[in-house]
Amino acid sequence: MKDLTDIPALMHDMGRRARDAAAVLAYAAPEAKRRALEAAADAVEAQAPEILAANAQDLDYGREKGLSDAMMDRLTLSPERIADIAIGLRTVAAQDDPVGAVMDEWDRPSGLHIRRVRTPLGVVGVIYESRPNVTADAGALCLKSGNAVILRGGSESFHSSRAIHACLVEGLRAVGLPEDAIQLVPTRDRAAVSEMLTMTDTIDVIVPRGGKGLVGLVQREARVPVFAHLEGIVHIYIDREADPLKALEVVKNAKTRRTGICGAAECLLIHRDVVDTIGQGVIRALIEAGVEVRTDETLSKIVGTVPASEDDWGREYLDMIIAARVVDDIDSAIAHIRRYGSNHTDCILTEDDAAADRFFQRLDSAILMRNASTQFADGGEFGMGAEIGIATGKMHARGPVGAEQLTSFKYLVTGDGTVR
Amino acid sequence: MKDLTDIPALMHDMGRRARDAAAVLAYAAPEAKRRALEAAADAVEAQAPEILAANAQDLDYGREKGLSDAMMDRLTLSPERIADIAIGLRTVAAQDDPVGAVMDEWDRPSGLHIRRVRTPLGVVGVIYESRPNVTADAGALCLKSGNAVILRGGSESFHSSRAIHACLVEGLRAVGLPEDAIQLVPTRDRAAVSEMLTMTDTIDVIVPRGGKGLVGLVQREARVPVFAHLEGIVHIYIDREADPLKALEVVKNAKTRRTGICGAAECLLIHRDVVDTIGQGVIRALIEAGVEVRTDETLSKIVGTVPASEDDWGREYLDMIIAARVVDDIDSAIAHIRRYGSNHTDCILTEDDAAADRFFQRLDSAILMRNASTQFADGGEFGMGAEIGIATGKMHARGPVGAEQLTSFKYLVTGDGTVR
Q1: What is the average per-residue pLDDT within B319-348?
Q2: What integer pLDDT is reported at residue A217 of this predicted model?
Q3: What is the ipTM of this complex?
Q4: pLDDT digit string (tens) for A192-244?
Q5: Which candidate, A82, A164, B140, B415, has a CA 20 to 30 Å from the CA of A299?
Q6: Nearest CA in chain B to A378
Q7: The domain that contains B292 carries what CATH number?
Q8: What sign has the CA pseudo-torsion A70, A76, A80, A82?
Q9: CB–CB of B112 and A408 under 8 A?
Q10: Do B67 and B127 fall within a single domain?
Q11: Across the interface, do B366 and A419 touch by the CB < 8 Å criterion?
């Protein structure tokens, strides 16, 4: 039994074992990785009762801690959600193996033939919130892309993540791949997170998924390269040339379909000229749907709204709450999003192509949308299969991150005694 | 006149100005960037005498400091080299503009149309050795890719870099682009480098080019993401199935064509079974060409070699010196390269496809070569036009880095009132 109180020693040991596993995984047969994921899916299905029992422990803990309804919902597993986890594993299993895939190849006048092929990154560290399914998705995508992974889930989902992780290890064992390929940090101690952020010798990249607390920690402490998966402060701008019906449908869907996902709308910007027409209609519909609408002074004349405070701009509610304010024109909307957004997903509602072009060109969010619900910000909806999350940084990975974005590449150059 | 002794204030001011320039550059017209680079090339040609005079100051300084011949060679400009700098600028000017290029686009069953388009990274910081031409190449590639850049050249090339930088600014001014798009750190104080490595608010990525000293500094201090362009500890492995003639030609070219570039061979590994045949011939030819060959005990029986010390493994000479040792088999060669290499460029000489495949699969250098001179490790030779250098890391950029790899991407999603 390892000493779970000596965090540096514990994490150093996990890192070393991950590095060793990565060396084997880098050239593991695609078929072995596929079968491991299928065996893991079988195990998840077979062990659904154990996973539910583990989840019940987490839910008790969550209730004691007084988690919000939205957080409890994300934490909760059901037979259906467990079935979805197994389906997710099978989906990743069935995807093409990215490792070794030739991205480009060309000949040079010198006589050289050059190929650019995908290669794993090495060891990935994933730090995530209390969503048990991320354990399966992140583990599967890292394995598929030939990376070893160290998973550190939220403390509220501790037992659920352990039960799911056991199934992943069962899959690895079934095909003879190293069990250290997918490791789960076996303690709730937050010191493990700080340790991971500085393990430059053994972790090649950290994927941090979470809100403001994690943002700050990563900014202060990370020495390992980071694919940030941070807040989704999603804005929707209703332009002067918006279509009233589309605006109504899209905003309602973007806010209320599921409030707990990072693509949920959090702030509504309304062009001054359409406040009394489209704006009124949209805000009333949101209030009728049970949304708390926190508004600036101009919009506060609409019955049922509540006044916003300065804190409400740039805030991720993940709940049935939205901030709303009036803007003078598209450039004011762009300026607001630049100041308060998180470069995740932002949307314009307009029939005016020039306005849409300006919005698309002058903003630099990972995902920019026109006349579409921001709830589509999702790897599955983009056609990528599973995703480890939505990257909000610009280095290497961006937007929905699947197995391909968890790889790097190398050049293979062939000559015949060719000299320069 | 700015206070050049208050480095934090100086650098903070440069960062803020770069950030402002980047906001404009992000949607600058391709034509403006092209014309700016052409005007810069004109200025380099017109001001060749001034650049040569500045270079003469640097050469005096270098002689006083007692720089090695190899370093003096890299520092020296001539009318021909200045003409090449202008040609380089025109080459980048003529390339396709990467910003806004559609990398992929597809339709989804939901009705959404998704485009993935290139977008600049923002502000790039380039820290480089005393090669005056890098000032022009790095400045041009950053401008082409829509990034603002802060250049910090080696202290020995201070005046040459300033003279070339003045030409780049003249190009920006000629077309009305912000002059702060390409800034050069106006002091030799090394504190500026440490400052750049931590300017997370204003620099998006640092490109460090250099040897061991810079490697250590970056590892200790960098908080900004890094595209490492570090040492090229280039290995060539002569396999048992190597062709003797190809081996002779390739090794000679890889070591001696130009010793000061990062693709120059630094270490020769020879399969035990061909030491007395191919090995002897290659080492004698190197010695005849004037190369100092530092060998292990087995090879030291060859007349004219000198004994290697432990320090010689994993060393970048950038000079007419090479280390050489015997290995038992291909796996020993791979193990040596894993331990001492720098993931830059490594080469196998063999006629055996299985050996080449194993070498390509089990090593993870940015560039792996078979039967070709490692001096081909170069963006131009790869067909990419100019390069900012050869990236040795795995995040985002790898191998020869041109304008494309200095971009990120965003997703533009269009619907028609589409909801999920």
Answers
A1: 97
A2: 87
A3: 0.93
A4: 999 999 999 999 999 998 877 887 888 788 889 999 888 899 999 999 999 99
A5: B415
A6: B420
A7: 3.40.309.10
A8: positive
A9: no
A10: yes
A11: no
